[in-house]
Each structure stands twice: as structure tokens, then as C-alpha cells.
Amino acid sequence: MFPPLPEQQRIADFLDRETGEIDAFIADQEELVAVLQERREAVVTHAVTEGLNAGAPTKNSGVAWFGDIPLQWQLRKLKSIVSTPITDGPHETPEAQSSGVPFVSAEAVSSGAVDFEKIWGFISREDHARFSRKYKPQRGDIYMVKSGATTGICAIVETDLEFNIWSPLAAIRCGASALPRFVLHSLRSHNFQDSVALHWNYGTQQNIGMKVIGNLSIPLPPLEEQAEIAAYLDRETAEIDAVIADAKEAIEVSKERRAALISAAVTGKIDVCNHVATMGV
């Protein structure tokens, strides 16, 4: 049953006004998220390529996308700062289990950390033991997605939980000359991500080989400065990420409110006439 035409018009006018306000708020929050993400990227990129000392003398890095770097820094290939060769997970599809050892793939790598709510599934302890002969995760390891739409996205292991990884992920384990958190920030910088995009291949999907990853470079300061920069970026990015999370939550709540409002209005659960009258007082 449809309401009479005059009431349909009142409902339509009500929803146009109310959803218009909600949509405008959502658009503002989405713009805020975009601005904050750009700011985050700029803060990280500046710190890992120019350092925190504005007046420090610089030198030409020799790489166009890095430009000048502080005089005491070195441009180092990733393969030269790892304690073990860059590797990946098994190139086979394991049998999924209802429980067992968490098995992590590209979907779980985002926002700089491994999201165990988005794992591929679980594998048997037998498969885990077999896969671990090639690579066994440990705290401080860094993963880079090396195939698919999210190629280049990186995350660090922040847990001692036992798990394993699949072949779309390259595993980078830092050696004595590089602090994992500094390297993570470097790999997430705009300049490094540009270098990834310049070197990946296209087949059925974009991908980048482990040898290519190993030959990509980052500017590397002395260890003490790495620690200072990493601590600064952990603090600054955490603040930005918190505001981004609040804005994204506001967007989701607003979308839910919009959907509920439409449903309530078109099913007669809102007295649009009284609402309009109240609004006009």
C-alpha cells in the first residue's frame, strides 16, 4: 500500500532534506580523512628522507625520487640491511582447517600491522611445521604484499603468536644496522612506494619479485637517529590515525543512520508531518 500522493510528497521532501544534511556531513568527513592521510604520508616521507634536524647538511642521494638526504645517511639496498635473505610463504594452497595455526595472506596486511581478524584461515600444525622450514615468522619481521591490487603495502609483526604466511607476502627481517620500525616507516613512505610502482610487473595482476624488492633502496641514518625518527613517527602517526579512525567511524554511523531514517520514513514509523511541524517551530 502506498500512502496518498500528498503524504508521499511530504515524505520525499523530508528525506531530501534529512539525507542531504547527512550526505553533506559524510562528504566533509571523507574530505577530512583524505587530508589527514595526505598529511600522514607527508610527515612520514619527510622524516625518513630528510630527518628531524632541519639545518643538517645534505648530499645528493643519486636517486631521483629520494632527492637530497642528510650527509651522514647512506642509501642502502634492502638486501644489504637484512639478517636473512628476503623470502616468502609457500607456493601452494594448503588445506584449510576449522582451527589450528593462523595463515596470513595479503588481506591481513594493512595500516602497518598484521590484522588477525582478516587472515586467510587456519592450517594444520603439520603444514605449519613444513612451511616453517622455509620461513618462520617472528616479532619485528616486515611483510610487503608482492602481488595483487595491494602490491607494496607493508606491515610489521607485533606479536609472538604462532602463525605462518602465504606466497603473496615477502618477509623482510632486519639485521643489526636497521631498526624494524624505522624500516617499516621508510617502506610506507611516498618515495619508496613510488619506487615499488616503478618496478612492478603487470600480468594478470601487478606483482614485484623478491630480487627486485631486495634491490630497492632506502635512506638509512645511524641507529640512534633511526630510533629517534621511529619514535617520533610512531607518536605522530598514532595521533593522526586516531583522528582518521574517529572520522571513519562517524562516516559509518552516519550511513547507518541514513539507511535507518529512510526505512523508518517510507514504512510510516516516523510521523513526518509532526516532525516537519516541530522543525518549523
UniProtKB/TrEMBL annotation:
GO molecular function term, any single one: DNA binding
Stored CDD domains: RMtype1_S_SonII-TRD2-CR2_like
Tagged with keyword Cytoplasm: no
Top-level taxon: Bacteria
Entry's Gene Ontology BP terms: DNA restriction-modification system
Keywords tagged on the record: DNA-binding, Restriction system
Entries under InterPro entries matching the protein: Restrct_endonuc_typeI_TRD (IPR000055), Restrct_endonuc_typeI_TRD_sf (IPR044946), Type-I_RE_S_subunit (IPR051212)
Type I restriction modification DNA specificity domain residues: 72-242
Cross-referenced Gene3D superfamilies: Bipartite methylase S protein, DNA methylase specificity domains
PANTHER family cross-referenced by the UniProt entry: TYPE I RESTRICTION ENZYME ECOKI SPECIFICITY SUBUNIT (PTHR43140:SF1), TYPE-1 RESTRICTION ENZYME ECOKI SPECIFICITY PROTEIN (PTHR43140)
Assigned protein family: Belongs to the type-I restriction system S methylase family.
Self-association state and partner proteins as the record states: The methyltransferase is composed of M and S polypeptides.
Protein name: Type I restriction enzyme S subunit
Species annotation: Sinomonas atrocyanea
